[in-house]
From TrEMBL, chain A:
<feature type="transmembrane region" description="Helical">
    <location>
        <begin position="97"/>
        <end position="116"/>
    </location>
</feature>
<keyword id="KW-1133">Transmembrane helix</keyword>
<feature type="transmembrane region" description="Helical">
    <location>
        <begin position="264"/>
        <end position="283"/>
    </location>
</feature>
<feature type="transmembrane region" description="Helical">
    <location>
        <begin position="187"/>
        <end position="213"/>
    </location>
</feature>
<dbReference type="InterPro" id="IPR001851">
    <property type="entry name" value="ABC_transp_permease"/>
</dbReference>
From TrEMBL, chain B:
<dbReference type="InterPro" id="IPR003593">
    <property type="entry name" value="AAA+_ATPase"/>
</dbReference>
<dbReference type="Pfam" id="PF00005">
    <property type="entry name" value="ABC_tran"/>
</dbReference>
<dbReference type="InterPro" id="IPR052156">
    <property type="entry name" value="BCAA_Transport_ATP-bd_LivF"/>
</dbReference>
<dbReference type="GO" id="GO:0005524">
    <property type="term" value="F:ATP binding"/>
</dbReference>
<keyword id="KW-0067">ATP-binding</keyword>
TrEMBL record, chain C:
<feature type="transmembrane region" description="Helical">
    <location>
        <begin position="83"/>
        <end position="105"/>
    </location>
</feature>
<dbReference type="Pfam" id="PF02653">
    <property type="entry name" value="BPD_transp_2"/>
</dbReference>
<keyword id="KW-0812">Transmembrane</keyword>
<feature type="transmembrane region" description="Helical">
    <location>
        <begin position="210"/>
        <end position="235"/>
    </location>
</feature>
<keyword id="KW-1133">Transmembrane helix</keyword>
From TrEMBL, chain D:
<dbReference type="GO" id="GO:0015192">
    <property type="term" value="F:L-phenylalanine transmembrane transporter activity"/>
</dbReference>
<dbReference type="GO" id="GO:0016887">
    <property type="term" value="F:ATP hydrolysis activity"/>
</dbReference>
<dbReference type="GO" id="GO:0042941">
    <property type="term" value="P:D-alanine transmembrane transport"/>
</dbReference>
<feature type="domain" description="ABC transporter">
    <location>
        <begin position="3"/>
        <end position="250"/>
    </location>
</feature>
<dbReference type="InterPro" id="IPR027417">
    <property type="entry name" value="P-loop_NTPase"/>
</dbReference>
């Protein structure tokens, strides 16, 4: 039983990271209806920026994370302005390919600047904590708590503030939003800002447990896609719930099936979903 | 108040609207008549800045607005209640109305007043304020769309086919409400296929045909015009 | 008609040049690069059939390229099969796997299809990487034989290998040509245009999509098998996403949905790569932005652009000619419309 | 009768789009479906052509139950349709667009394409011939080699008709054939629709332009809120009180 709960906690950790990444992806999808294949590259860049801030500038962990969130958020905004905005009326094939181009560039860029090696990220929260008879590192606890905190913040932002509500409004009806006087370009930029920051945060939180390397975004982005297909493309709660479902499935799968194949679980889920429902689960009517 | 001068709009190689002149004075109800695809919606979209014009100019209160973005045009006081309603279907009625007041978002008291005003005009919206917009009936959605447009306190309200898809009783109600909105001081530009009902409340009208204005005149003149009668009222 | 004749002339010239290339430039290095380009072209044609004509952007094709290559390697080295039998089987096996994937994948559309195939591609890469008993994993797979002799013809020299690959390329182009300009090709284009409309005119879209998907994978895995026997060493990287992106870039630069786009795009991009060799692993620093800029500013690609320009010109000519002959009636019509 | 629906019902979630509709399309006639926007006309069309699966009820075509057949098989049986907005391939010629319409009557496969068999050549000629034939029928022979993007809206409508006709249909479903077309051009389309019926093709259409319907339809069904509220000849419909109230609007009574 204790072992089982331990696994649940692991699932919660992994799921938190997945949810953060999927949240950014789903927000952008909701606004622009494009699957941003470059989102994983933003995640990777987020890891590197935090790491660099800590190692080169000697900044403390938290400050480094904040800077990284700002930098990657701005990078997201740039992508929106320079790439996705000019492609807003292009056929659907185009923005996907453009996103792939960005992904290639950012990966090559990371490799060029930081090298291809795997790097570790130090954390001030390395010690082991005992909680109700369970052992876990403080870093894991941090991931869970800060993710939940961010999600609560995001919820209040989207639900309780005018500015946040514009994102929801625009994802439900772009022209409708424009016609009540919302500047949709600003909203799109803001969404990319949030999306990028969330990716940077996720990477910075996860990196002390995993590692930092140019390809670190690949698996994460693929899984984030599975999550938003699971939770409904464009749905915010769906991304959170989907993220945790995948996190739990993986940590349980790693224990009870095989650790080597835990990464396959996400794809098995995807195959099952799309076999049953080719348009993904929870597709809602009336979404334009 | 609003003037369209020689406006043409092009979709690719297709000219949707050609050389259109429209003049709306303060306090009027002006109706654009014409069948599906005659160019009425295109004119509306162009006034709102959703489409760019290829020729001509649009002047509102002495300023050229044809290069403005849609949100800026809303801020000037031109608000459109578009065809297809364009509601936020997974937000509640209340949230939809609130978004309508987006440009006044910092003035809480003003929002409250507008909200009460809209609830007075459409009591059903108050009753259903916590329902999702997507769950409303067609008529209620149309009311919500108009209510949302009113929340921004427009000087000029563009109504694109408010009677579309409504039961006859509600159509009549709708036109009464439009009249009332106008009496309270909002200038209205209306696009309609339901010529009969629209001409009853309008001061003057323009008849669209194939992207151009075929006939124009006061409501009485249009009523008396045989061609208009035949083509758009159908008896 | 004149345009078609002109096209045929250009094609004939290109083939002549390809045939004469080893004589014109007797340099083993260039020969090697040319052979490799031909292999990529075959793979790009595979992608083009699906993405360009049927309208489904698959991101799993590098995976199938790798399956073709590894199957050949395993069948020849581990199973000891006759080379040509193994060669044939590797294409068939890849196509069969493609068939199974297609059954699920083709039920999805647009974003879902792209995401799904991206995931399939990644699974293929993971399996190759992890299953080291069979594939050699990260250490790679060595000792793959070159193509076996066919009768008196041996394929040990670079020149003979060049002609072998050229033969397959021409075969693929020929088959592509036949398909595209047939009722089958028209069916694919109808599906790309609008699947809904295709259904209402009685096209069994699922069946046609599946055939085009499997055939497209057949071509790509054929390229993979050729690659294995030409390079004779394989690493899991050939199934990696970056290879997928190479194929995409080649196709896009040349012109997606055009007959000669894959040739033009591949030649152009591989020769640019040659110039940028000093960049090595960082060539994506240049290629990534090229891909993005291309999609934004010139999505038709080189060949697509030329075709567009030509049709516009002939259309204009036709209009002015028609205008002269029947200017009266067209004037009348204009009056009516105005 | 050629096609018949029995208690046809379609629900989307809680919304009933089509409610218990019994309707028959009479052979060789022009059958029209009218009703206010949102009355369920398009859903009804989608049910007949196989794009939606009915929640309940049956669709019978020439005595055969086709309720569960997919759209492409219905097309083979002889049910063709057009869409409100034309889905033509804009970058290709009119002729090239229409040729594919006869594909369903051919049987050549990938094998035939690769080896360019006699069958393929024969069938290609057959498709081309059919395309020219239907283009002539709809009056687009002169525009056959024009790029679709450069022809007028009305010509596009005609091209869409031609594409549907190329499938050799027994019944053709026209979804708002005259939408977005000028009054004088509408007359041309009217003539074309009448010509189709005279030629022996059964027509069923949805349309908003009442004048046109009243002029050419032999039989009209009126839908309102998903239910059939009336059925009859144009004369009968014109004088039906329920219809006047529901469709022509309150103002018509006054």
């Amino acid at each position: 039983m204790e072992f089982f709960i331990q696994q649940l906690l692991n699932g919660l950790t992994v799921g938190s990271v997945y949810s953060l990444v999927a949240l950014g992806l789903t927000l952008v999808y909701g606004i622009l209806h494009i699957p941003n294949f470059a989102h994983g590259a933003l995640y990777m860049m987020g890891g590197y920026v935090t790491l660099t801030m800590m190692s080169k500038s000697g900044l403390p962990y938290w400050l480094a994370i904040v800077i990284s969130m700002i930098v990657i958020g701005t990078l997201g905004v740039l992508l929106e302005r320079l790439v996705f905005y000019p492609l807003r009326d292009a056929p659907p094939l185009h923005d996907k390919i453009a996103a792939i181009g960005i992904l290639l560039f950012l990966e090559a860029f990371a490799q060029f600047v930081w090298g291809a090696d795997y790097q570790t990220m130090p954390t001030p929260y390395g010690k082991v904590v005992n909680l109700f008879g369970l052992t876990l590192t403080a870093q894991r606890l941090l991931i869970i708590t800060s993710t939940i905190a961010i999600m609560v913040l995001l919820y209040f932002f989207l639900k309780k503030t005018f500015i946040g509500a514009t994102i929801i409004a625009m994802s439900q009806n772009r022209e409708g939003a424009n016609l009540v006087g919302i500047n949709i370009n600003k909203v799109a930029m803001m969404t990319f800002m949030i999306s990028g920051s969330l990716a940077a945060l996720a990477a910075s939180l996860a990196s002390p447990i995993n590692l930092v390397f140019p390809g670190m975004g690949h698996l994460v982005i693929l899984k984030a896609f599975v999550i938003i297909i699971l939770g409904g493309m464009g749905s915010v709660p769906g991304a959170i719930i989907g993220g945790y479902i995948l996190g739990f499935s993986e940590s349980l799968g790693a224990t009870y099936i095989s650790n080597d194949y835990k990464d396959i679980i996400a794809f098995v889920i995807l195959v099952i979903i799309l076999t049953i429902k080719p348009t993904g689960l929870f597709v809602r009517r009336g979404q334009s | 108040m609003l003037e369209l001068r020689n406006v043409s709009v092009q979709y690719g190689s297709f000219t949707a609207v050609q050389n259109v002149n429209i003049h709306v004075h303060e306090g009027e109800i002006v109706v654009l008549l014409g069948s599906n695809g005659a160019g009425k919606s295109t004119v509306f979209r162009t006034i709102s800045g959703l489409n760019k014009l290829s020729k001509g100019e649009i002047v509102f209160k002495g300023n050229r607005i044809d290069r403005y973005s849609p949100d800026r045009i809303v801020q000037l006081g031109i608000v459109q209640c578009a065809e297809g309603r364009k509601l936020f279907s997974r937000m509640t009625v209340y949230e939809n109305l609130l978004m309508g007041a987006y440009i006044h978002r910092k003035e809480k008291e003003k929002i409250k007043q507008s909200l009460n005003h809209v609830y007075e005009l459409f009591p059903i919206l108050k009753e259903k304020r916590n329902d999702l917009a997507g769950a409303l009936s067609g008529g209620q959605q149309q009311m919500l769309a108009i209510g949302r447009a009113l929340m921004s306190r427009p000087k000029l309200l563009l109504l694109d086919e408010p009677s579309i898809g409504l039961a006859p009783l509600i159509v009549e109600q709708m036109f009464q409400i439009i009249k009332q909105i106008n009496k309270e001081g909002t200038t209205i530009l209306l696009a309609e296929q339901n010529a009969h009902a629209a001409l009853h409340i309008a001061h003057k009208g323009y008849v669209f045909e194939n992207g151009t204005i075929a006939v124009q005149g006061t409501s009485q003149e249009l009523f008396a015009n045989d061609n208009v009668h035949k083509a758009y009222i159908g008896t | 008609m004149i345009a078609v004749l002109k096209q045929k002339k250009i094609a004939a010239l290109a083939i002549l040049f390809a045939l004469a290339f080893p004589l014109l430039i007797p340099n083993n290095y260039y020969l090697h690069m040319m052979t490799l380009s031909f292999i990529w072209m075959i793979a790009v044609y595979g992608l083009n059939l699906l993405a360009g004509y049927t309208g489904y952007l698959s991101l799993a094709h590098a995976g199938f390229f790798a399956i073709g290559a590894y199957t050949l390697a395993i069948l020849t080295v581990k199973a000891g099969l006759n080379f040509w039998l193994a060669f044939f089987l590797s294409c068939v096996i890849s196509s069969f796997i493609g068939f199974l994937v297609g059954l699920v994948a083709l039920r999805t559309k647009e974003h879902f299809f792209a995401i799904y195939t991206l995931c399939v591609g990644y699974i293929i890469y993971l399996v190759i990487d992890k299953w080291d008993n069979l594939t050699g994993g990260v250490r790679g797979f060595i000792g793959i034989p070159s193509p076996a002799n066919i009768g008196p013809i041996s394929f040990q020299t670079p020149v003979s290998q060049y002609y072998l690959v050229l033969f397959f390329l021409l075969l693929v182009v020929f088959v592509m040509y036949r398909i595209v300009y047939s009722l089958t090709g028209r069916t694919y284009i109808a599906i790309r245009n609008s699947e809904e409309l295709a259904l209402t005119i009685g096209i069994s879209t699922m069946k046609d999509k599946l055939v085009s998907f499997v055939l497209s994978i057949f071509f790509t895995s054929l390229a993979g098998a050729l690659y294995a026997s030409f390079i004779r060493f394989l690493g899991p990287d050939i199934g990696y996403i970056s290879v997928m992106f190479d194929l995409l870039i080649f196709l896009l630069v040349g012109g997606i949905g055009t007959m000669s786009g894959p040739v033009v795009g591949t030649l152009l991009m591989t020769s640019i790569s040659q110039q940028l060799q000093f960049l090595q692993d960082y060539r994506m620093l240049i290629f990534g932005p090229i891909l993005t800029l291309l999609v934004i500013f010139y999505p038709r690609g080189v060949v697509g652009g030329v075709i567009h320009w030509k049709t516009k010109r002939t259309e204009n000519n036709r209009d002015s000619r028609v205008g002269k002959i029947s200017s009266h009636s067209s004037n009348e019509k204009q009056v009516k419309e105005g | 009768m050629l096609l018949e629906t029995k208690n046809l019902t379609k629900r989307f979630g809680g919304l009933i789009a089509v409610n218990n509709v019994n309707f028959s399309i009479e052979r060789g006639k022009i059958n029209a479906i009218i009703g206010p926007n949102g009355a369920g006309k398009s859903t009804f069309f989608n049910l007949i052509s196989g794009f939606h699966k009915p929640t309940a009820g049956q669709i019978i075509f020439k005595g055969e139950d086709i309720t569960h057949l997919p759209a492409n098989k219905r097309a083979k049986l002889g049910i063709a349709r057009t869409f409100q907005t034309t889905h033509l391939f804009e970058q290709s010629t009119v002729l090239d667009n229409v040729i594919i319409g006869h594909r369903l009557r051919t049987s050549s496969t990938l094998f035939d394409a690769i080896f360019r068999t006699k069958r393929l050549k024969r069938e290609e000629a057959q498709c081309k011939e059919k395309a020219m034939e239907v283009l002539e029928f709809v009056g687009l022979t002169d525009a056959a080699h024009k790029i679709v993007a450069n022809i007028s809206q009305e010509e596009k409508k005609r091209a869409a008709f031609a594409l549907a006709l190329a499938t050799d249909p027994e019944v053709i479903l026209l979804d708002e054939p005259a939408a977005g077309v000028n009054p004088d051009e509408t007359e041309g389309l009217e003539e074309l629709i009448v010509k189709m019926a005279e030629y022996g093709i059964t027509v069923c259409l949805i349309e908003h332009k009442m004048q046109m319907i009243m002029k050419i339809a032999h039989k009209i069904m009126v839908l309102n809120y998903g239910e059939k509220i009336a059925e009859g000849t144009p004369e009968e419909i014109k004088n039906n009180e329920i219809v006047i109230q529901a469709y022509l609007g309150g103002s018509a009574i006054a």
